[in-house]
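Action item from last week, closing it out:
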Amino acid sequence: METLWLQAPHRRWNPLRREWVLVSPHRTQRPWQGQMETPAVPAPITYDPTCYLCPGNMRANGERTPQYESTYVFPNDFAALKQDVPQAQLDLGYGLLRAETERGICRVLCFDPRHDLTLATMEVGKIRCVVDMWTSQAEELGARPEIQYVQIFENRGAMMGASNPHPHGQVWATEHIPNEPLMELAAQQEYYAKSQEPLLSAYLRTELIEQERAVASNETWVAVVPFWAVWPFETLLLPRCPVSSFTALSAEERDGLADILHTLTAGYNRVFDTPFPYSMGFHPAPSDGKPHPEWTLHAHFYPPLLRSATVRKFMVGFELLGSPQRDITPESAAATLRSVMQGS
């Protein structure tokens, strides 16, 4: 790929969201006098008596967390969604002022009983237990007739709003397909209708040819900095063989997913020699009872750090009012990530 002119301001097309991303590589030279973050480094303790996610401790609702020994799932004590909501719709202004009820289920998924672990520091075998729990949750919740989407995600680090450093993620099952996967659904359906091939399968094949943005891989999964990345060290995790959901993964693919999650997150920690914050989430096909040959299961990693452990990327100004924008090129970010993935 000719990259010389890509060092000048340019925009890149994101086919998954069908939107443009502005890239401004020259801005990395500007002096920074903005907000500096204090890296949050949790105390290295295996058990915290004040942590409601540690085994045996009391939660805010008065229930006690059991003495679990592997992964553990429980209903979110402060759930954003509820099941017992009577269905209702409201239209206050010619279709412009609309509202409707939304039913759903929110759960918390503890990765491990140890307070001091993360996906980056857990054994791969224990991460495989997390993958298996994600799969069982997706299968159970996705089978419910009122659920159309199961969103599995993790907010890692206080910078990303995580209220507790104990290794955990969340599972939200919603009555309707949320905005982000809904946009991806439309884009993938349009591409599949034209090519009879999943969009992300074709994209991965292109990245494997170029190799410029691939950062980690194994026999079943590949992590790339997407050509259209917005966040500085954003990555996209893709299966080598197209599968649409967790339940479609083979045992080998689950093993591979656990392995690459460890590689990727451990590598992130070495970029700025700090526990790397991020929001990560999987996008499976909708659980709407329809076939989805267009869909490829994938995960997005959105880390906010930009220049160091203390300088983060903010989505403000033009990003909020115009288009997404980034400073370092995806190729430069990929080169940095590749350099630290060795030995993960």
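Closing note: The chain has a mean pLDDT of 91.
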